[in-house]
Amino acid sequence: MEASPAAPPRRGAISAVLALNKQMGQTSFDCIRQVRRIYGERRVGHAGTLDPMAQGLLPICLGGATRLIDHFHRQTKTYCCTVRLGERSETLDTEGAVIPGGDAGGLDAEQVRAALRQFVGEISQIPPMHSAVRHEGEHLYDLARRGEQVERQPRTALIVSAELTGFRPGSVAEADLEVECGKGTFMRVLASDLGDALGVGGLLSWLERTRYGSLTIADAHTIEELTGLDDPTTALLPPWVAISFLPQVFLGPPAVTLVRNGQAVFLPRVAAGLPQGETRAHSPSGELVAVGEVTGFRFRPTKVMAG
Fold first, then answer.
1. Where in the chain is the domain with CATH 3.30.2350.10?
2. Has domain 15-74+214-242 been given CATH number 3.30.2350.10?
C-alpha cells in the first residue's frame, strides 16, 4: 500500500517536492529564484539542470526535502528530442553557429534506427565544452565563453532505451527520439555521436524532459501557473515522491518518536516479510519520518526528516 500524501505544508514550514514545467528560454537557476520567491523558502534545489533551450520536467525540492535531492539522481529520466542530421555545431545544438555536415539525403529511418541501437547500454561520452561540468574548479561553459578548450575525459553514461519515434528525410534530415537514461547523460552528445555514426554529423534542435523517477510532465506546473494560484502550496507534492522507488515500512507512534530522535527500532513481524536494505519509514498518517536500513526486523534511520 502506497503512503498517502500529507496535507500541504504551511508557508514557512515547507518540506515538499515541486514538479516544475520549465519553459524554453528559462535557466534552471532562474526557476529556482522564482520558486524561492513564490514560496518564501530559501532552501530550494533542483534535481538535474536543463539547458535554457530545453523544456520540460524539472523536479525541485523545497525546505527539508532538499536532503533528498541525491535520491532523485539515482533514478532514470526520459527525454523526447529532435536530432538534425547533416549539420554540426560547436555547442552540439542550435545555440552555437550551425555549419553544414554531410548530405543526409541518402538516409532512411531503418539506417537511423540501426545506428541508434549501438548507443543503448553503458556508453562513453565526452562532456561538451558548453556544459556545467567543472574543470579545475570552473564550469566548462565559462571556459568556452572565454574561447578556451580543455581536454575532457570520457565518462560512462547509461542509456536504458532509445527509440526512433519519427523521421523526416532530406539533405538535412530530422530524427525524433525518445530516450530513457541515467544520471550524467548528455543528449547533445548523443545527437552529435549519432550523426557521426551515420557519417553526416548531427546536432540537437529540440529537447523536452517528460519523466524523472516517478514524476511525469503531467504532474508539472509552469511558473506562470504557480503565480496564478490562490494557494501555490496546493501544487506541492510530499517529500517521499523523491524516494518513491524505495520500499516502505510504517511505524507506530512510539517508534516514530524514537526514530525522530535518531534511534533504531524493531519492527513488527508481518506474514509477507519485511523489505531488507534501504527503506523509507512513514508514520501511520503517511508522513515521511526517515530513510534508513532494515536488517532483519530492525530499522536504523540514516536520514531523519524534521517533524
1. 15-74+214-242, 77-212
2. yes
For 140-180, write each residue's pLDDT tens digit.
556 556 565 666 678 899 999 999 999 999 999 999 999 99
Q: Report the greatest alpha carbon distance in the chain.
A: 70
Q: Are 246 and 2 in contact (CB under 8 A)?
A: no
* Alpha helix stretches (DSSP H) within the chain: 28-39, 69-73, 109-117, 140-145, 187-197, 223-227, 253-260
SS (H, E, C) 237-282: ECHHHHHCCCCEEECCHHHHHHHHCCCCEECCCCCCCCCCEEEEEE
Neighbours of 276 (CB within 10 A): 11
User: Minimal CA–CA distance to 56: which of 30, 80, 83, 92?
Assistant: 80
Asked if 172 and 195 touch (Cβ cutoff 8 Å), the reply is: no
Strands 202-212 and 55-63: parallel
Indicate which residues carry an active-site annotation: 51
Sequence letter at residue 193: D
CATH number of 246-304: 2.30.130.10
Examine the pLDDT at 117 and tell me if it is beyond 50: yes
State the amino acid at position 227 in one-letter form. Answer: T
Which strand (E) or helix (H) includes residue 305?
none
